[in-house]
Amino acid sequence: SILVPPGEAVAIQGPSGSGKSTFARALATLLEPDAGAVLLGGLDAQRIAPTQFRTRVAFLAQQPAMFEGSVLRNLEAGPQVHGKSLSDVRASELIRAVGLDEPILQREARTLSGGEKQRVALARALANEPEVLLLDEPTAALDPDAGERIVALLRELRARGLSVVMVTHEESHARALGGTLYRCERGRLAIDS
Fold it and tell me: pTM surpassing 0.90?
């Protein structure tokens, strides 16, 4: 069991194949857990409407998919699902926050590099203003400097009250996030002392 209070961070670190991503997908309600339950605000996540859950919990997959169209269109997609709009100013703020330059907003999203897609997906997740940000290997496709910038952004988001759960094989990123560190080995979680 893990508990992630509002505004707190949890890092789940372990080697490839240890079950980290499976655990993240279960937290995101993309897989049903073998045992236990995922609770959000004290409610069983399986009883929360999927669209409502996705509004409150943003999941960033290890290999994010891009929608057809521009990067701007990708950023607008999340809020539109919930009947909201994303201003050009806010789109620019989000893209800069993840370390990209504004001209990328006009590029075709599917032509981006793996690292660019990862950062655009993070900006897209943040566009919905979630309560919880759940990230599966958010720095895996990034160079070291970009990875450190993303971890710094996650710390900043946490300071603003966003709960952050990050799955990573990078121990340095897990420690840099702050908060509680869990180790995952052979499908089991243990708190790091």
Answer: no
